Amino acid sequence: MVVYSFYIFDRHAECIYKKKWAPRPTSTGSKSQQPNGLPDGAPQPKALSAEDDAKLIFGTIFSLRNMVRKLGGEDDRFISYRTGHYKLHYYETPTSLKFVMVTDTKTNNLRIVLHQIYVSLYVEFVVKNPLSPIEHPGGIGVNCELFELGVEQFVNASLMS
Fold first, then answer.
1. pLDDT per residue as tens digits for the range 9-50
2. Strand order across the 3-9 sheet
3. Which of 39, 45, 119, 142 is the most buried (most CB within 10 A)?
């Protein structure tokens, strides 16, 4: 299993944590395409900044979550979606923190894994840390070395092995 990236969004739609492990794959269909999946001679798209990537991810989960609630009712939950290149996993806490992980398409549902990251790492190292702010205004984000180290070790040990 390959983990591409991990994001945490607060209730104000700010990305308070992001971590990338591997770049997302690109389409490689025929020999007349560039490595990024575009036909030869096509203009190169601009690479997204980390902020733009996080905004795009949040917009996607916000739209899909609202669509699921409108089509299925309040009891239905958005858990994940899959494209031809990646799978996005989603977990929302009771306090409206949103945990998002982007992996390869062959990965099973990671809702329990995201819940474990929330309970065993985020709560322990960020929420219970007296030096960590309760709110993260302006996208200041999570700045806790123990949390970052814990996420790195957790992902490497349990997901990438």
1. 988 888 899 998 876 665 554 444 455 555 555 555 566 677
2. 15-20, 3-9, 98-103, 87-92, 80-82
3. 142
- What is the pTM for the complete model shown? 0.80
Which two tokens mark 66? 């609202």
> What tokens were used for 78?
């958005």
- Best CA proximity match to 25, nearest among 39, 4, 49: 4
Instruction: Write out pLDDT tens, residues 98-138.
Output: 999 999 999 898 999 999 999 999 999 989 888 777 776 66
Beta pairing class for 98-103 and 3-9: antiparallel
Residue 30's identity, in one-letter code, is S
Assign 101 to helix, strand or coil. strand
d(CA 111, CA 84): 20
Q: What pLDDT is stored for residue 9 in this prediction? A: 92
Identify the DSSP state of 120: I
Residue 39 confidence (pLDDT): 55
Cα-to-chain-centroid distance, residue 156 = 16
